Amino acid sequence: MSATPIEELAPLTEEQVQEHLAAGKLVEGLQHMSPKYLEGMRRILTVSADTEFVSAPSYLRAASHAPALNNFGSAMSIIQDELAHAHIGYRLLGDLGVDMDWLIYERPAEQFKYPYAFDVPLNSWVELVCANAMYDQAGFVLLSDVFQSSTFGPWKRALAKVDKEETFHLRHGRTWLKKLSKDPEGRAEVQAAVDWMFILTLEWFGLPDDRKKHSEQLDYGFKGKSNDQLRQWWMSEVVPFMEEIGIDVPAHFDAELDRYVIDCPFPAQFDEEKREWLLDDGAIEWDDVVTRWRGRGPMNRDYVTTLQRGYQTTSLRRAA
Ligand SMILES: [Fe+2]
Ligand SMILES: [Fe+2]
């Protein structure tokens, strides 16, 4: 990704970074990083920026089904926010020595690191607003956690604005879902979308804590909460809301355990063409899920091509 080896870019030792953090200081740039911190920060920023970036073509495709022009306008405003969020992440990656042109415009589609959910197409306005209520809620949970806990100052400060915009996106979703679920026909459409999207969003938070690798994300304070804690947080927002509007979801709060419990086989096999969970086949191994994620889904190439087209067909190259 970068011509300069990270050992040269990040001059501190692990102990020096830990001392810096223990003194209550934020990390402001490469001068405060060790190679391990830099590598981990690049990883989490890439996932975040890629997720924001790909949500734009995904939402744009669905926005073409907007019921009226002003609704299309709301969707476009969300898409503009997402592109600005992506820009924050990529710009910071540029400061961390990554070749931004390669990362954004030249990287092969299958190397993008966003959640698999965005590889499954959103085919209607109802699916777009369901995505706002569930996917943007996931984004909000993940980014609020980074905002509260991140030790990387430039990102932390930028997220103050991002958080507010994500709140607008998920409210847009909720307002629509409340309205749609008032009549039986609308409720059936929402239910059909939630049936495949809910479980995909559960997967979004990644491997369960006992299977997770990258521990520097917590050790270094890149994040405050673990994957399972974030998945719980998301369910605590989404499950009560869905219950309130009369939509069934395969999860409930267990008072005895004091946490949300998933009521269907999880993780499960997903038929990406039909957009259906093969729940009758029972739960599968996380390794099989990781294989599906790595293979990317139906829209990966299409969306990345859309995002890279302008660069490929114009001469906006950076001066050497
Ligand atoms: Fe966003
Ligand atoms: Fe969003």
Describe the structure in your own words.
The protein starts with 5 loop residues before the first helix and ends in a 7-residue tail after the last helix. It is about 60% helix and about 5% strand. The chain has helices at about 5-10, 15-20, 35-65, 70-95, 100-105, 125-150, 155-180, 185-205, 215-220, 225-245, 285-295, 300-315; strands spanning about 250-255, 260, 270, 275. The chain is built from 12 helices and 4 strands, in the order H-H-H-H-H-H-H-H-H-H-E-E-E-E-H-H. It has a two-stranded antiparallel ribbon. Strands 3-4 form a two-stranded antiparallel sheet. It has about 325 residues and is mostly helical. The chain binds fe (ii) ion (2 copies).
Topology of helices and strands:
Layout: H1 6-9, H2 14-22, H3 35-63, H4 69-95, H5 100-106, H6 125-149, H7 153-180, H8 184-204, H9 216-219, H10 227-244, E1 251-254, E2 259-262, E3 270-271, E4 276-277, H11 286-295, H12 300-313
Antiparallel strand pairs: 1-2, 3-4
The structure holds fe (ii) ion (FE2) (2 copies).
Radius of gyration: 20 Å
Q: Bound compounds, please?
A: fe (ii) ion
| Beta-strand residue fraction | under 5%
Main β-sheet, in a few words?
2 strands, antiparallel
In summary, what is this structure?
This protein is mainly α and 320 residues long. It is built from 12 helices and 4 strands; from the N terminus they run H-H-H-H-H-H-H-H-H-H-E-E-E-E-H-H.
List its salient traits.
binds fe (ii) ion; globular; single chain; mainly alpha; two-stranded antiparallel ribbon
